[in-house]
């Protein structure tokens, strides 16, 4: 069916999120062009448990798309690397 | 302009010698070294584990250094940041900047550290008597980076 075509991107979890999700990343199927990072996060949040807790609205989650800082409104495409992580604490 | 992310300790003397070797234009070298403390947020800290995002960390540091070079008249800049397990008193990060005159080196060094703290993807996890905990980002670091408006010189 033409309307159910899905694309895949790779989601990466770092630091506290990697531990909370017990995963360093996964392939993520999404609806294709036009999807935003916010929609990806909404889907992940819907899994409940640690996903709902760590990605709850108001929690500080930083986003990078293809290793460049991005925002919830950034649109994603097939093959993109979407990283989710807490505010950075290096130095 | 060089950025490195590594587990190994660095020797500040060797690093500075490498930057200034034979370059008689250099009149000033400013350095910053960040080290591991044994206390944070009212708890004693026995160890620190630093995690990064391979690839993005190096490119983010490269952009910060390039931005510093566009703002000040500097000759060279070096960032070395360690990852993995570190213990109190160990060095975490070195920033070194060379210039003809001290003002450019001082300012660029401080700028690079302020943006490293808020833009480069590193995360610290501390070991305390109560167990391990991820270090929270500080508002004071965001404030420090915000001082540098696009045309600050």
Task: Walk me through the structure.
With 91 residues, chain A is an alpha+beta fold. Chain A has a five-stranded mixed sheet. In chain A, a hairpin with a 2-residue loop joins β3 and β4 (68-70). Helix content of chain A is 23%, strand content 27%. Chain B is of the alpha+beta class and 153 residues long. Classes of the chains: A alpha+beta (91), B alpha+beta (153). Chain A binds chain B through residues 12, 14-16, 60, 64, 67-69, 83, 85-91, and chain B through 34, 50-53, 55-56, 59-60, 81, 92-93, 113, 116-125, 134-137.
Q: Name the quaternary structure.
A: heterodimer
**Secondary-structure element string of chain B:** EHEEEEHEEEHEEH
Order of helices and strands of chain A: EHEHHEEE
Low-confidence stretches of chain B: none
Distance between the termini of chain B: 20 Å
* Amount of helix of chain A: 10-25%
Strand order of the largest sheet of chain B: 1-6-8-2
Question: How would you state the average pLDDT of chain A, rounded?
Answer: 93
Query: How would a crystallographer describe the biggest sheet of chain A?
Result: 5 strands, mixed
Overall structural class of chain A, as computed from helix and strand content, comes to alpha+beta
**Shape of chain B from CA axes?**
globular
Quick overview of this protein structure:
With 91 residues, chain A is an alpha+beta fold.
Secondary structure layout:
The complex is a heterodimer of chains A (91) and B (153).
Chain A: E1 7-13, H1 16-21, E2 25-30, H2 37-45, H3 49-54, E3 62-65, E4 68-70, E5 81-85
Parallel strand pairs in A: 1-5
Antiparallel strand pairs in A: 1-2, 3-4, 3-5
Chain B: E1 2-6, H1 12-20, E2 28-35, E3 39-40, E4 43-44, E5 47-52, H2 56-71, E6 74-82, E7 84-86, E8 91-99, H3 102-119, E9 122-128, E10 131-134, H4 139-146
Parallel strand pairs in B: 1-6
Antiparallel strand pairs in B: 2-8, 3-4, 5-7, 5-9, 6-8, 9-10
Key features of this structure:
heterodimer, A: 91 residues, alpha+beta, five-stranded mixed β-sheet, 5 strands, globular, B: 153 residues, four-stranded mixed β-sheet, four-stranded antiparallel β-sheet, 4 helices
């Amino acid at each position: 069916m033409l309307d159910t075509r899905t694309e895949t991107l790779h989601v990466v979890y770092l630091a506290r999120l990697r531990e909370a999700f017990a995963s360093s990343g996964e392939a993520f199927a999404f609806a294709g062009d036009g999807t935003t990072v916010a929609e990806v996060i909404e889907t992940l949040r819907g899994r409940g448990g640690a996903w709902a807790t760590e990605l709850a609205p108001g929690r500080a989650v930083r986003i990078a798309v293809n290793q460049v800082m991005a925002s919830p409104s950034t649109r994603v495409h097939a093959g993109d690397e979407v990283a989710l992580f807490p505010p950075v604490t290096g130095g | 302009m060089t950025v490195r992310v590594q587990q190994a300790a660095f020797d500040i003397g060797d690093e500075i010698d490498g930057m200034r070797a034979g370059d008689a234009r250099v009149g000033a070298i400013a350095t910053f070294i960040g080290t591991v403390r044994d206390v944070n947020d009212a708890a004693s800290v026995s160890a620190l584990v630093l995690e990064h995002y391979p690839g993005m960390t190096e490119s983010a540091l490269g952009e910060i250094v390039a931005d510093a070079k566009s703002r000040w008249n500097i000759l060279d800049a070096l960032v070395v940041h360690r990852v993995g397990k570190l213990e109190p008193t160990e060095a975490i990060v070195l920033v070194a900047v060379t210039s003809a005159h001290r003002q450019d080196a001082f300012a660029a060094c401080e700028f690079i550290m302020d943006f490293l703290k808020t833009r480069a993807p590193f995360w610290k996890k501390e070991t305390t008597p109560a167990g391990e905990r991820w270090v929270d980002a500080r508002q004071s670091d965001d404030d420090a980076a915000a001082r540098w408006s696009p045309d600050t010189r």
